[in-house]
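Q: Predict the bound structure with geranylgeranyl diphosphate.
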Amino acid sequence: MDARGWLAERIPPVETALVNLLAPCDGVPSRLTGAMAHLLLPGGKRLRPALALAAAEAVGAPSERALPMAVAVELVHSYSLIHDDLPCMDDDDTRRGRPTVHRAFDEATAVLAGDALLTLAFEVLAADAGDGSARLAAVGELARASGAAGLVGGQVDDLAFEAPEADRARIESIHARKSAALITAALVGGGLLGGADREACEALRRCGTALGVAFQIADDLLDADEDDGCSLLRVEGMDEARARSEALLTRALEETRRFGEPAEPLRALACYAVRRSE
Ligand code: GRG
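A: Predicted complex:
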């Protein structure tokens, strides 16, 4: 299966939902909406929403059942990138070839746009609950992935990262929280909204953890010339890092075997995420 073709087919409803969320609204300053849209609407690969949709398909549901989770994870992803780019964190001037939000607007607006995107994610996920208990569980997944033991904690440890003291376990612990947590929430949340049972959710969780770390190592390999920060490349070199990301991808794919043919899109996306060349 071709991951890019599947993405082109399944992502348009996510794009439409994101555009609709940022339509002019009473009480929302247009400058804030502009800052929220700046990174979110041009968007990136939309990998996390795609994983949420593919997880629903893997457990036998139509992908649109996972739309609220797909939208919510992209909102959290976008918030995290805006805050990561801030002068007090990575201090980046550009992201995806465009000025970062604090450059295009100002620092306070960028902080607030990130806050608003994060909050909106939970509003979307909590709205119109069809199966209330699945939605509630998905809210919990996203909250844990975004919080102190997930993205935020991973970011704190990444900011304090000292390469000479690092080993694989330390680096992968940061990857697991900074990158894999949201990917895992996409998979488990998408599965939950698709009606996954406990065992299926745990398989999706194991898949997400392995895939998320493999994805981060692969991302570092693509940026190998930047060679800074928390990266397995720095401590183990390129060949070892590549082998490790392939081994983790294999583990992630094994976790999808139980779902059979409906998990083909999920497997294709996993391979695309780890083996892409740009
Ligand atoms: C500020 C709480 C907080 C967290 C920031 C997301 C993040 C944590 C930092 C951004 C930099 C980084 C290396 C994140 C790891 C995950 C990652 C590789 C993000 C980029 O994901 P892609 O490639 O991005 O899916 P696109 O642009 O395609 O959406």
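A: The radius of gyration is 18 Å.
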